[in-house]
C-alpha cells in the first residue's frame, strides 16, 4: 500500500511540476475571465467574449466532466501549497520525529471551507459596484503571477505581497490551505454540477471494519461516498484511492466489488 501511495504522489508531483513550469498563470487567467464578466455588468457594458473566458470555459467544462482535476494536478497555487506542506511534514519528521499528518481538526476544516465563498462573493460584488479598482495591489495571486513570470512586485503590491506570504505560512500548517479556504476559483469549481461519473465512490460493504484511512488521508476530510454534500470540495488528488488497503475506491459508478 505504501508503494502505491508513493507511486501516486510521484506521478502527481511530476504532473504538477510540468504545469507549474509551463502554465503557472492558469488560475489567475481563469478567474480574470469571471471578473471580466462582472466588471462589464457593473459598468453597464455588453459582456464580450475574451481570451480569459476561453480558459475559464475550458476549465469549467473539464471540471463538470472529470471533476476538479485542475485543482489537484494543474493549479500552480495548489502545487505550491502541496510542496510547502510536504516540506513542513519532512522537517517535522526529521527534527521532531512527528510522522503523523498535521493540520486542523475536521470540524474547523469544514467551517473554514465556507470562507472561500464569502471571498468570491466579495470580489464579484466589488467588480459590480466599481470598488474593485480600489483593491489594486492587494491581490496575492497577482503577486504570485508576477513572481512566477520572473518579475519582482513593485511597492504598490506591498499588501498583496504580505497576503501571499501569510498564505504560504498557512500552506505549511494545513494541506491545501488556500485551495480549501481562500480560493475564489475553487469556490466556483465547487459549485459546478459535476457529473456522477467524475466523483470518487466506494463500495461500503467491502470496506475493512472501522477503516477510515481514505477519510484520514483526504485533505478536505471528506467521506468518500460520491454523494456527500461536500463532494464539490474534492480536488481529485487520488489520495483516498491510493490509501485504501483493499483498493475499494474508484472514480465513477460502482456496482459490486468482490
TrEMBL record:
Residues 225-254 form the 4Fe-4S ferredoxin-type domain. The keyword Metal-binding applies. It is found in: Cell membrane. Keywords: Cell membrane, Iron, Iron-sulfur, Membrane, Metal-binding, Transmembrane, Transmembrane helix. PROSITE patterns: 4FE4S_FER_1, 4FE4S_FER_2. InterPro entries: 4Fe4S_Fe-S-bd (IPR017896), 4Fe4S_Fe_S_CS (IPR017900), NosR_regulator (IPR052378). This is 4Fe-4S binding protein. It comes from Blautia wexlerae.
Amino acid at each position: 500500500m505504501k508503494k502505491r501511495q508513493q507511486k501516486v504522489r510521484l506521478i502527481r508531483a511530476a504532473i504538477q511540476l510540468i504545469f507549474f513550469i509551463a502554465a503557472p498563470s492558469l488560475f489567475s487567467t481563469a478567474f480574470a475571465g469571471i471578473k471580466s464578466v462582472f466588471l462589464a455588468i457593473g459598468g453597464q457594458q455588453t459582456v464580450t467574449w475574451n481570451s480569459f473566458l476561453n480558459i475559464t470555459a475550458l476549465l469549467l467544462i473539464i471540471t463538470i466532466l472529470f471533476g476538479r482535476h485542475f485543482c489537484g494536478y494543474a493549479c500552480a497555487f495548489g502545487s505550491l501549497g502541496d510542496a510547502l506542506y510536504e516540506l513542513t511534514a519532512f522537517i517535522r519528521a526529521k527534527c521532531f520525529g512527528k510522522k503523523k499528518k498535521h493540520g486542523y481538526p475536521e470540524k474547523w476544516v469544514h467551517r473554514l471551507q465556507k470562507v472561500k465563498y464569502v471571498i468570491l462573493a466579495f470580489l464579484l460584488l466589488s467588480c459590480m459596484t466599481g470598488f474593485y479598482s480600489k483593491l489594486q495591489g492587494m491581490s496575492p495571486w497577482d503577486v504570485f503571477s508576477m513572481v512566477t513570470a520572473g518579475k519582482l512586485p513593485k511597492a504598490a503590491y506591498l499588501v498583496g505581497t504580505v497576503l501571499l506570504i501569510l498564505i504560504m505560512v498557512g500552506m505549511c500548517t494545513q494541506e491545501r490551505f488556500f485551495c480549501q479556504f481562500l480560493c475564489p476559483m475553487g469556490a466556483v469549481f465547487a459549485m459546478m454540477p459535476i457529473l456522477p461519473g467524475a466523483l470518487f465512490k466506494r463500495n461500503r460493504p467491502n470496506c475493512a471494519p472501522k477503516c477510515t484511512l481514505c477519510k484520514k488521508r483526504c485533505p478536505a476530510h471528506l467521506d468518500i461516498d460520491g454523494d456527500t454534500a461536500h463532494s464539490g470540495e474534492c480536488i481529485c488528488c487520488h489520495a483516498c484511492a491510493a490509501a485504501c488497503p483493499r483498493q475499494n475506491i474508484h472514480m465513477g459508478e460502482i456496482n459490486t466489488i468482490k
